[in-house]
C-alpha cells in the first residue's frame, strides 16, 4: 500500500500540472502504468467506476464539440480521464481515516485533517441513508413520474436527508466531547511506512511532469 501522505502529495502535483498542460505526453502514463501493476487485482473494478464517472466528462466534451473545437474536446476528455484514473488507482481500498492521517502528516494542521475526515464521513453516511430511503420507496411501489406527488416525495426525501445529517452531527459532537476528543489523530507510528513503492511513485511522477516525451495529443 502506498503511503497516504505520498498518495495525496503525488495526486495534487500530478493533477495540478496535468490540468494546466496543453498537451498529453507518453510519459504521463508512467505513474498510471506503475499503479495499474500494483492494483492489478482491482483494475477492472476501477475501470468500472471510471466508466460511470465519464458520463459527466462526455457531456463537457460534447459541449466543446458543438463549438467545433475537436482538439480541445479530445484534450479535455483524455486529460480528465488520466487524472481521475490516477486518483482511483491511488485511493482505491484506502480508508478515510488513513487519508485524514495522511493530511495531518503533511503538516497541514489537525483542524484540516479532522474537518476533511468528518466531511467525507458525513457524505458516506448520507449516501447510506439515501440508499435506505430508496429501498423504502421501492418497497412501497413508488414510481418515478412527473406528478405533483412524485415531486413532493423527492422534496421530502431531501429534507429527511438534511434532518438526518443534522441529528447525526449533534450526536457525534456529544459523543466526541464525552470521549475527550482534542482534534488530533493518533495512530501507531510503525503502521505508516515509507517504502520502495513510495519512492518509485515520486520519481515516476516527476519524470512524467519534467520529461515531456512522446506527444499523444
Give the C-alpha Rg.
Answer: 21 Å
Mean pLDDT: 82
Kindly name the structural category. Answer: mainly alpha
- Assess the beta-strand content as a share of residues: under 5%
Q: Main β-sheet, in a few words?
A: none
Shape: flat
The helix tally amounts to 8
- Total discrete domains: 2
Number of strands: 0
Order of helices and strands: HHHHHHHH
Distance between the termini: 32 Å
Overview of this structure, please?
By secondary structure, the protein is an all-alpha fold. The protein is 72% helix and 0% strand. The model has no long low-confidence stretch (mean pLDDT 82). Keywords: Cell membrane, Membrane, Transmembrane, Transmembrane helix. This is Energy-coupling factor transporter transmembrane component T. InterPro entries: ABC/ECF_trnsptr_transmembrane, ECF_transporter_component. Pfam families: CbiQ.
Amino acid at each position: 500500500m502506498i503511503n497516504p501522505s505520498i498518495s495525496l502529495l503525488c495526486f495534487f502535483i500530478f493533477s495540478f500540472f496535468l490540468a494546466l498542460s496543453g498537451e498529453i505526453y507518453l510519459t504521463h502514463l508512467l505513474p498510471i502504468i506503475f499503479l495499474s501493476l500494483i492494483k492489478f487485482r482491482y483494475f477492472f473494478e476501477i475501470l468500472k467506476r471510471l466508466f460511470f464517472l465519464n458520463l459527466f466528462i462526455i457531456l463537457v466534451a460534447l459541449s466543446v464539440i458543438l463549438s467545433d473545437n475537436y482538439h480541445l474536446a479530445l484534450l479535455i476528455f483524455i486529460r480528465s480521464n488520466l487524472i481521475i484514473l490516477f486518483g482511483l488507482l491511488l485511493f482505491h481500498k484506502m480508508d478515510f481515516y488513513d487519508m485524514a492521517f495522511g493530511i495531518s502528516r503533511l503538516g497541514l494542521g489537525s483542524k484540516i485533517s479532522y474537518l476533511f475526515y468528518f466531511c467525507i464521513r458525513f457524505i458516506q453516511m448520507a449516501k447510506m441513508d439515501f440508499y435506505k430511503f430508496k429501498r423504502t420507496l421501492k418497497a412501497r411501489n413508488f414510481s418515478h413520474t412527473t406528478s405533483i406527488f412524485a415531486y413532493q416525495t423527492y422534496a421530502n426525501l431531501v429534507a429527511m436527508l438534511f434532518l438526518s445529517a443534522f441529528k447525526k452531527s449533534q450526536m457525534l459532537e456529544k459523543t466526541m466531547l464525552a470521549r475527550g476528543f482534542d482534534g488530533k489523530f493518533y495512530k501507531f507510528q510503525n503502521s505508516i511506512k515509507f517504502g520502495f513503492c513510495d519512492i518509485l511513485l515520486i520519481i515516476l511522477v516527476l519524470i512524467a511532469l519534467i520529461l515531456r516525451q512522446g506527444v499523444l495529443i
